[in-house]
Design goal:
Organism: hot springs metagenome
Oligomer: single chain
Protein name: GGDEF domain-containing protein
InterPro entries: Nucleotide_cyclase, Rev_trsase/Diguanyl_cyclase
Order of helices and strands: H
Helix content: 25-40%
Radius of gyration: 10 Å
Number of helices: 1
Structural class: mainly alpha
Shape: elongated
Largest sheet: none
Strand content: under 5%
Length: 46
């Protein structure tokens, strides 16, 4: 099961939040099964 959750006041709009959530989702997929990826573990803004 993969889940994405974003709760970060640093984002200005929904597009930024969705982009960050997608990055976290794909990082969880890359790193294996049964993973929880925290915001501090992902490069959020590129």
């Amino acid at each position: 099961m993969k889940t994405k959750i974003v709760n970060n006041p640093a984002y200005d709009n929904a597009v930024d939040i969705c982009s960050a959530a997608d990055k976290a989702l794909y990082e969880a997929k890359r790193s294996g099964r049964n993973k929880v990826i925290k915001a501090s573990e992902v490069e959020w803004k590129s």
